Amino acid sequence: MSVVRTIRRVDRLVSRRRTRCILVDSRTAVNYEMVAPVVRAMSPDPRVRFAFTASEEPQRLEEIYKAAPSGRWLIGPRRAALSRWDAYLTSDFMWAALPRGAARIQMFHGVAGKYGFDAPHDTMRQWDRLFFVNERRLRNFVTAGAIDADSPAARLIGMPKVDCLVDGTLRRNDVLGHFRLDPARPTVLYAPTWSPESSLNRLGERLLERLVQLPINVVVKLHDRSRDLRPQYSGGIDWVARLSAVLSRPNAHLAGGANIAPCLVAADVLITDHSSAGFEYLLLDRPVVRIEVPELIRQANVHPDYVQLMADASLNVTTDADAVRAVERAIAEPAERSAVRRRIAADLFYEAGTATPRCAAALYEVIELTPHPSVAPIAHEVKPCLQSA
Predict the structure, then answer these.
(1) Which CATH number does 2-159+351-367 carry?
(2) Closest residue by Cα to residue 344 from 387, 288, 299, 263
(3) What residues does CATH 3.40.50.2000 cover in the chain?
(4) Of all residues in the chain, what percent carry a pLDDT higher than 70?
(5) What is the dihedral sign for C-alpha 172, 174, 175, 179?
(6) Which homologous superfamily is 165-348 in?
(7) pLDDT digits 0-9 by tens, 272-283
(8) In this structure, how many other beta carbons lie within 10 angstroms of the beta carbon of residue 149?
(9) Tens digits of per-residue pLDDT, 297-323?
(10) Are 23 and 95 contacting, i.e. CB atoms less than 8 angstroms apart?
(11) Would you say 269 and 251 are in contact if contact means Cβ atoms under 8 Å apart?
């Protein structure tokens, strides 16, 4: 390994350039949304250039990065492997082959506690930076032995994706106008997670058939994996085609795109099962109706702490009929469980509203550049590590 490090160091010195090149790697368009605010914040800087790859499914490059800035630099994994990168940025546990080396940066995907994300059994010491969303996850990594308590790689950043939920960027009535829905009506968002075991597969159609009969707006936001016809993601069902009839009413809308933030801001009540979007919605301090699906919890290996957090913040139901009654209750009593929602949101999202400039500053540190003036001043310091395990 020392020989490899020496070769890479010489390569960096010989090919050192004024422009820093950062490679973004994503499995899905939702993965890219975790990184997108930072890309947008740093794109005005002529010293920085972002490239975008999909190391697992390169044939989906255009689809995954549809929302990337115009003139985006899409690059296949083979070509990426031949190039030298100053940083490699991803929001999932991916590891592209980069023989010439790069500072590997993990931004994480979501806060729902699925698939061992919050307490990995494998070491994470190979990452040069870990941009933690909250201190809870940082502590869990230390407790699980994935990193050391004084890890030089750990940074407490927050989640740039959710800044727009609290900084006034998005407005409810503007979003509803874009959806051609009446802003005077209460709006209910149904946003299930992806999985053959999700509430969508078990009762989604029946639930929506009931909801559209109410004097409310109904918005449906599918996870991009639920639009994937492969059985392991959607159960092999074309959900867009399946739901088109029930959502063909004036008070209903099937939202497109990978970014759920506008839908969250537009909604007065959220219905979900177990998803990061459910936790993100808590930042708005509005009611959540949680459909209990034990099979989903088991299949997604959700950490018990996160199951309890979602249950504590929500009105919990098991059937479509119960969900409709819970929606009516939530509209009538929106302040119920408000204190719990606010407490959990503060726990899971470090300094929401200021994560993007903090993340950009940490990335500039990695690529050894001073921040560009286009990046807003940092509201709070970037915490380098956990002080105590």
Answers:
(1) 3.40.50.2000
(2) 288
(3) 2-159+351-367, 165-348
(4) 92
(5) positive
(6) Glycogen Phosphorylase B; (3.40.50.2000)
(7) 999 999 999 999
(8) 15
(9) 999 999 999 999 999 999 999 999 999
(10) no
(11) no
